[in-house]
Amino acid sequence: MASHCEKHHPHTDSTPHLNGEANTHLPKKPKISSTSISESEIQSEFAHHDPSVARINNGSFGCCPSSVISAQQQWQLKFLRQPDRFYFNDLKKGILESRTIIKNLINAEHIDEVSIVDNATTAAAIVLQKIARDFNEGRFEKGDAAVMLHYAYGAVKKSIEAYVSRAGGYVIEVQLPFPVKSNDEIICEFRKALERGKANGRKVRLAVIDHITSMPCVVIPVKELVKICREEGVDQVFVDAAHAIGCTDIDMQDIGADYYTSNLHKWFFCPPSIAFLYSRRSPGHSDLHHPVVSHEYGNGLAIESAWIGTRDYSAQLVVPSVLNFVNRFEDGIKGIKKRNHEVVVKMGEMLVEAWKTHLGCPPSMCASMIMVGLPSCLGISSESDTLKLRMHLREEFRVEVPIYYRAPRKGETAIVTGYARISHQVYNKFEDYVKFRDAINELVRDGFTCSQLSK
């Protein structure tokens, strides 16, 4: 396994004034109320959730507390009351404040490294369009390689196909095992893929690495893989960390990637849709542009992204309100991440014990989501089965949870082919997981199989 001996650089603050606006910095130790938020207050913040549904799928769309929704509505009304004043006096200042908070949360070195975009899919398009230009304009040779994980998010795979493959890049997928037992398995397969990428004199121009894979979900040893990329001469590294902020620890100076993106509407309580794209300040990294060309084209990605035409920017302006919300919890977002991880592991272990199955990875390789094996007798034998079973659980049992199909390998028998990805967020209750457990137990008791569901 790669060494963990990389030095952690102390956070330095070199944020300049931008557009004449004063800097906004997080205190080193954010103020937290002496009395932590109560359980009743948490439930009140999420009272708009459908109470009849066991919502154990925070990973897909996230959640937003009522206090933040209220703040968002105030921003929307501020725009609607006097759009010109909002545009000239409030928008740039507000987005700068959000960017500054994000900069400190992720330990970026400079404010110019942080741009706010709609979501991680938009961020991927920005980075991959730049890579395509590098191929098309001769900075990369046709046939040079790009490496990505087999578990890469579907939309990111499509973006690699749309931009990198069409521009002449040779794409190699890292075949990862599942269930996964250790980081060593991932690191070994990643090294093999880099070797394939460098075969026949090719250069590996890009590595796309997930920080937390979506389906199946597992925390990838991203720091170690970035270090390997540097050792092996990979030109640029893009980390797709859609789930990371608010879910696991992230530190831009420690990880050392060229580009890194994460959604704030999944695990950081923002409304849809907001993500950040980090771009390390380095020669050759300045040619990033938002896919929507506006009046701000050429003024740097952060400024381009802050205005792409008249639209609702309120989700990008509530980050200070979200910070206030998370700081009502003991130890703020750090404490939330820790408790979510501990509880989701306990719930996962409770479920696999009830169903006599197993987890998809060791607890140390999950964050706030974990893969839970489903009973083999359910007869999950295709991706179609997972969708039908998911809908059946939603409509008949009021349980919302995504399901993954793991095809048996040659010669394997009596294995678990279906896994549920359960999440835990602050609004979840123990009863949510009991409801899921009992629903599956009822299906098993009734002799149910996926073949009984209509196509």
TrEMBL record:
> According to the UniProt record, where is the region Disordered?
1-44
Listed A to Z, the keywords are:
Pyridoxal phosphate
Which InterPro entries has this protein been placed in?
Answer: Aminotrans_V_dom, PyrdxlP-dep_Trfase, PyrdxlP-dep_Trfase_major
User: What range(s) does the Aminotransferase class V domain occupy?
Assistant: 91-282
Gene3D superfamilies assigned: Type I PLP-dependent aspartate aminotransferase-like (Major domain) (3.40.640.10)
- The protein in question is named Probable L-cysteine desulfhydrase, chloroplastic
Superkingdom of this protein's organism: Eukaryota
Instruction: Provide ranges: composition bias, Low complexity.
Output: 32-44
Residue stretches of biased makeup (Basic residues): 1-10
